[in-house]
Amino acid sequence: xxxxxxxxxxxxxxxxxxxxxxxxxxxxxxxxxxxxxxxxxxxxxxxxxxxxxxxxxxxxxxxxxxxxxxxxxxxxxxxxxxxxxxxxxxxxxxxxxxxxxxxxxxxxxxxxxxxxxxxxxxxxxxxxxxxxxxxxxxxxxxxxxxxxxxxxxxxxxxxxxxxxxxxxxxxxxxxxxxxxxxxxxxxxxxxxxxxxxxxxxxxxxxxxxxxxxxxxxxxxxxxxxxxxxxxxxxxxxxxxxxxxxxxxxxxxxxxxxxxxxxxxxxxxxxxxxxxxxxxxxxxxxxxxxxxxxxxxxxxxxxxxxxxxxxxxxxxxxxxxxxxxxxxxxxxxxxxxxxxxxxxxxxxxxxxxxxxxxxxxxxxxxxxxxxxxxxxxxxxxxxxxxxxxxxxxxxxxx
Length: 397
What we know:
Shape: elongated
Number of domains: 3
Order of helices and strands: EEHHHHHHHEEEEHEHEHHEHHH
CATH superfamily of the largest domain: Ribonuclease H-like superfamily/Ribonuclease H
Strand content: 5-15%
Radius of gyration: 35 Å
CATH class of the largest domain: Alpha Beta
Helix content: 40-55%
Number of strands: 9
Largest sheet: 7 strands, mixed
CATH topology of the largest domain: Nucleotidyltransferase, domain 5
Distance between the termini: 55 Å
């Protein structure tokens, strides 16, 4: 972009601004012959001529280009709708705008897509011979702080109307809960949610030498990395993690006779099982009767508030007469749990990450401790749960 100097301060002008200033000058037009000749040949007459002193002249450098070839060049820029550099900048802006749009829509983007976007933008503005090569793409990503990142979650497509409906449901839910939370003691407002854990948790990344194409890691039991058990913690608004922790173990062949006896020593765990390691409506009914309702009774005679996500497994337990009498249950809107459910938003992530870190440490230091066995799983869960119940870790709840 050309620069026009006003006094001591350089001010960047667009081509159209430069042409406009030239045309606004007294007796000035873009006729190269007449204006250039006027500038070169006019006398130094104080009454009406041009004073050659650029500090006094009305045709000084801040008014016009005194060289005819410069005027011709600017006219060519205007006719071509900008300089090549300006067009390259516009290609950058259009490409980045399309990148943002794709990102908003959740579309997977690679370097080849950036190349196609840039070439399409260049064609749209008439920039010939533009090539979105590796160096241009590299600089484009560097300018806009763009990197290749691993996809951590795949989600279904949602229309804008569906997303808007979810946003409205979140606002409505917040409005409904504010007066309830304002009048209910913090230790009487609970949230619960299920979280699945692999029998053996292994980190997805490891340190390795640069340039290594094949990175392998060892697990104690490969099958244990593809099967899971489920926990269901309870937290309250006052920052407490409530005991016991409900745990559903993975028992594909059914629980052995020694199941209860083997796990009876873990007082802060309520242990049950299923062939899939996942909870059913029957498990949830047991959780209500044996874990939550006794906790609600112990606090006070006032009804407790329970926030849960929308899941069909709750229905059987929610119909219990005792549940209706002692609990005021509120369902978090579908599609909003990942954004407003307390356990989903924060605690479950911290708990699972700590479990994974401790599993890595055990594999490194105590390889004889098999993480995926029933009793060792319970030991690890019990220790971690006990730590997270500590008063100093209220900030994690």
